[in-house]
Write a structure and sequence with these properties.
The complex is a heterodimer of chains A (387) and B (265). Helices cover 71% and strands 9% of the residues of chain A. Chain A is built from 13 helices and 4 strands. In chain A, a hairpin with a 2-residue loop joins strand 1 and strand 2. In chain A, helix 2 runs parallel beside helix 3 and helix 7 packs parallel to helix 10. Chain B has one domain: Rossmann fold (3-Layer(aba) Sandwich). The N terminus of chain B is likely disordered. The chains are: A alpha/beta (387), B alpha/beta (265). Chains A and B meet through helix 2, helix 3, helix 4 and helix 13 of A and helix 5 and helix 7 of B.
């Protein structure tokens, strides 16, 4: 008999297949288990055998085999296909009969799998990704406008026919986004107010301008910080929960179920949510601003040595109704933007858990971004009308 | 056939199993053997604890008392590594497929292979495509996401994934529910073919009288937390247990009538 070569540097692979060559016929003797745990070694071994370009006719002796599963059967069918592609032939000897069916089934399946080509690779992937992204952005913008239109239409419908308005749902949402948000809003705005006051005293003291800390705290909080902090908190707290709720309802076909029963999801789900936000955010802004002023006052008293009486008196001189109005006017618009973004993103959720996470992130990021952009636009607007 | 089938030891042996939630006992001192190479069908009313039994056997639910042996090893007395090795020898098809929603069909089937076997990428693709072809899906479906599949396709993909590591036992939780009769029939013959070619032991929960009739070698009936009847279809038709009687000889069970005559005649 002929030579026995070490084909691969792998003891377990060597155990599974030994090669002998005699009279231009290659004899392969299979042994051990041709199963899933050994598949990687076996694949390397078969690959090494097939690497000989002269290989044509092969006899595979299966008498030493302990066990085959579909991985082993696939390797046999691979050997067979590659040999026949070269014009050779595989002869299988002494295959235990219970594996005949398995081998045939795998051969058929592998042939079937081969026939259907996999999808062609896409060209210019980098360029198409940029185009895809741009078109996604513009489509996203159109969807936002679409949602604004749908919500306005739903609001008009509700005004014309108040009986269709979901009052209970609105109150429930108001409880969730308004009432339940109060403790955290109070805490955060209180801290922000205190920090602003502390920084003010620390730096203004150098110029002996302690008194002007009150002006800064009052104007900054009423005009900008109060509403901005509260809007960002609400976007993170309520916007994300709107997106996740609507998204999982979309995933489980609940929204389709609503449609088939003749309800418009905008009427039933979205209008109450957005309306609740539009009502809650100004109230939260008011509460938050007061809490921030209170924080400033406490710091002024304990850290700056300014008694509360003087603080309040200074505050009366420093701020006017205008400052208060500027802050409060912005609140409902910001609430509207947060609500529109959250609901649009929620309805964009597809079938997968991943897309739910993606949409929730995108909802929070987009709404915070738009809130800040809106704040900038308002600043320009109020400056030009002299408020 | 597999090694397990060469001996006649039961593949799964459940003894005196009790499982309950709070004050409600679902399985009450239940015993059941699954023999190698057979297809056993578990039937029982809705809420009778079929899925609880399946989930307890595969280790997803804790049991209160009793023992479960899988491949002759008591699952309470094996270390984590041995338990994982046992789990690799079992494949599970969940009722709703439980496909990973963010992975494509191909990736779903490759997932267990990728984790447990260190195979080159082309081999993963080829083996997964072969498995998909074995359950009757083509490469064109391979890049779809689970949300784009029909109910029947979802079940097929779930089957391909359950078979990914060439398990010796597969657990099927209502494999044909929600399929039209033709698809259900196809799925039944698929189970039968796979069982014969791969030498599988199949443990299936089903409500489908046709499946019970055409595929199952043995039927076990779960009622009142126990196995109340166990045997081939003829034994079910002869049983005097009231639930078994109304199930197999009730309105819908009548369609088995001709076969009953054949069996008795």
């Amino acid at each position: 008999m002929g030579d026995e070569k070490a084909l691969v540097d792998d003891a377990s692979a060597m155990r599974m297949l030994t090669v002998r060559t005699a009279d231009q016929i290659t004899m392969l003797a299979a042994s051990d288990q041709w199963t899933a745990p050994n598949a990687a070694s076996l694949d390397r071994m078969i690959g090494a055998v097939l690497a000989r370009p002269s290989l044509r006719n092969v006899t595979l002796d299966m008498s030493g085999i302990e066990r085959i599963d579909s991985y082993g059967a696939w390797e046999i069918s691979r050997l067979e296909r590659e040999l026949s592609a070269r014009g050779g032939k595989l002869q299988i000897l002494a295959l235990p009969e219970q594996y005949g069916g398995l081998l045939r089934a795998v051969e058929q399946a592998a042939e079937l799998a081969d026939k259907v080509p996999s999808q062609p690779r896409k060209e210019f992937t980098g360029l198409s990704a940029i185009g895809q992204r741009m078109s996604n952005y513009s489509r996203g913008f159109i969807l936002l406008l679409n949602m604004v239109g749908a919500v306005c239409a739903a609001a008009f419908r509700a005004m014309l026919k108040p009986s269709t308005f979901r009052f209970t749902s609105t109150v429930h949402q108001l409880d969730r986004v308004g009432w339940q948000a109060i403790p955290i809003i109070l805490l955060i705005t209180f801290l922000i107010g205190s920090i602003i006051a502390q920084q003010g005293f620390f730096h203004f003291r150098k110029f002996g301008a302690d008194d002007y800390v009150v002006d800064m705290v009052g104007i900054l909080i009423l005009r900008e910080i109060g509403v901005l902090i509260v809007a960002i908190m609400v976007a993170g707290r309520s916007g994300s929960s709107y997106t996740a709720e609507l998204g999982s309802m979309k995933m489980r076909e609940e929204i389709d179920a609503l449609r088939t029963m003749g309800f418009d999801p905008v009427d039933v789900l979205i209008l109450p949510r957005i309306l609740a936000l539009v009502i809650a955010l100004p109230l939260l802004t008011f509460i938050g601003s007061m809490s921030a002023l209170y924080g400033g006052e406490i710091v002024a008293w304990l850290y700056g040595g300014m008694s509360p009486d003087i603080f309040v008196a200074r505050l009366k001189e420093a701020i006017s109704m205008t400052h208060f109005k500027v802050g409060m006017i912005k609140a409902p618009f910001m609430a509207f933007v947060i609500g529109i973004v959250a609901c649009t993103e929620g309805l964009k959720v597809g079938g997968s858990a991943e897309s739910l996470g993606l949409r929730t992130t995108s909802s929070v990021v987009t709404s915070i971004f738009l809130v800040i952009v809106l704040d900038g636009l308002f600043a320009v607007f109020f400056a030009s009308i002299g408020m | 056939m597999t090694m397990a089938s060469s001996s006649n030891e039961p593949v799964i042996s459940v003894r005196d199993l009790t499982v309950g939630f709070r004050d409600r006992t679902v399985l009450d001192h239940l015993s059941l053997d699954v023999r190698p190479g057979e297809i056993i069908g578990l039937v029982g009313g809705s809420g009778s604890g079929k899925s609880v039994l399946l989930r307890t056997i595969i280790g997803l639910l804790p049991k209160q008392s009793g023992s479960i042996e899988v491949f002759g090893r008591d699952v309470d007395h094996v270390d984590d590594q041995a338990r994982r090795a046992l789990q690799r020898r079992c494949g599970v098809l969940f009722q709703n497929g439980a496909l990973y929603s963010s992975l494509t069909v191909m990736q779903n089937v490759q997932f267990p292979m990728r984790e447990f076997l260190h195979l080159p990428e082309y081999l993963l693709d080829e083996i997964a495509a072969t498995k998909l072809a074995m359950v009757g899906l083509s490469r064109l479906d391979a890049n779809k996401l689970p949300s784009e599949l029909s109910g029947g396709m979802t079940k097929r993909v779930a089957m391909a994934r359950a078979l990914a590591l060439d398990p010796e036992v597969v657990f099927l939780d209502e494999p044909t529910s929600g399929l039209d009769p033709i698809s259900a029939g196809d799925f039944d013959s698929l189970i039968r073919t796979l069982q014969q070619t791969l030498g599988l032991t199949v443990f299936m929960i089903t409500h489908d009288l046709n499946s019970l009739h055409t595929v199952c070698d043995r039927i076990a009936v779960l009622a009142d937390g126990k196995i109340v009847a166990d045997g081939p279809l003829s034994a079910m038709l002869a049983s005097e247990h009231p639930w078994v009687k109304s199930y197999f000889r009730g309105q819908r069970g009548r369609m088995l009538e001709p076969s009953r005559q054949q069996l008795s005649g």
